[in-house]
Amino acid sequence: MKTSLSRRDYDCIESVYVLSTDGWSARVKDIANRLKVAPPTAVEFLDKLTGLGIVEKGPSGYRLSEKGVDRFNEATRSHRLFETLLVRNGVSLKEACRISSTLGGPVDEAELEQLCSHMSHPNTCPHGRPIPMGGGHG
Ligand SMILES: [Zn+2]
Ligand SMILES: [Zn+2]
């Protein structure tokens, strides 16, 4: 059973991911800036995620564990699937992206997979960015 994560947790995971993509660890100060919170608040979020094994703490900062990368992919997948769904239904891309960002938290994987099947498994979102595969296929 996976721990369900809040929208805030996902924002934090995303920040760590984005800030550590060049191979360096993400620093608390930069994570706090991205999340628009004070550094001690960011440390609280990070401690929680570290405890869940999603984030790893190194000597100079934080990065996602393998499990964390999986959770990040799931969140990206739901964001891009919803975005695709909304655009297919006549919503502008900008608006679809904004709505998906507010929805994008924890989504049940089985339901997401059902939605994905229903949409004939799109490979990319309307921005042309890849939609990560779900556990159900690939
Ligand atoms: Zn988007
Ligand atoms: Zn997109």
What does this entry look like structurally?
This protein is mostly helical and 138 residues long. It has 2 domains: 7-64, Arc Repressor Mutant, subunit A, CATH 1.10.10; 73-118. It has helices at residues 7-19, 28-35, 39-51, 66-88, 93-103, 109-118, and strands at 55-57, 62-64. It has a two-stranded antiparallel sheet. α1 crosses α4. The longest helix has 23 residues, at 66-88. It is elongated and about 45 Å long. The mean pLDDT is 89.
Percent of residues in helical segments?
55-70%
* Secondary structure category: mainly alpha
The fraction of residues in strands falls at: under 5%
Q: Could you describe the largest sheet, including whether it forms a barrel?
A: 2 strands, antiparallel
Mean pLDDT: 89
How is the largest sheet built, in terms of strand order? 1-2
> What fold name goes in the CATH topology slot of the largest domain?
Arc Repressor Mutant, subunit A
Helices and strands, in order, run as: HHHEEHHH
Query: What's the number of domains?
Result: 2
The CATH homology group name of the largest domain? Winged helix-like DNA-binding domain superfamily/Winged helix DNA-binding domain
Task: Count the E strands.
Answer: 2
Named once each, the bound ligands are:
zinc ion
What's the structural blueprint in terms of helices and strands?
Blueprint: H1 7-19, H2 28-35, H3 39-51, E1 55-57, E2 62-64, H4 66-88, H5 93-103, H6 109-118
Helix pairs in contact: 1-2, 1-3, 1-4, 2-3, 4-5
The structure holds zinc ion (ZN) (2 copies).
